[in-house]
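Handout, section B. The chain below has 153 residues.
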Amino acid sequence: MASVGPSAASSQPALPSGPAVFKTIPYAFILPEIVCGTWVWILVAATSVSLPLLQGWVMYVSLTSCIISLLLLLSYLLGFHKNSENWKVLDSLYHGATAILYMSAAVLQANATIHSEFNSDGPTNYQLNSAASFFAFLTTFLYIFHAFSIYYQ
């Protein structure tokens, strides 16, 4: 009789809990995502919003994703996942969808930056919008890296 090998679930790496979250590659991206996303929100809020529809979407995406990512980080730190495979799927889907939303927000913020260059608001507004665009694209790539590293894990 042939022996049965280990199950497929046990060969998968365990989901981290507690401080191990910051040492595991896909999950270590959560804190930089929160920090960069917070910078996007702060920098857009500091400008004189000349295009409220565009920059409103940027603020909505950045604030919402920061809050949800913070809740996800807290759930990993507190071990709410109980090493369930469903959390990997949830994490991958969330970060993939958020990467798409953040890409749209980053493009809209870049458009607002281009428009602020020609406004009479001064160079400070343009510099703040430029920094917000940079952090929006950086946050987009962090979400993309996180989603793909979960997927290929």
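Note. The chain has a mean pLDDT of 84. Compare this with the example in section A.
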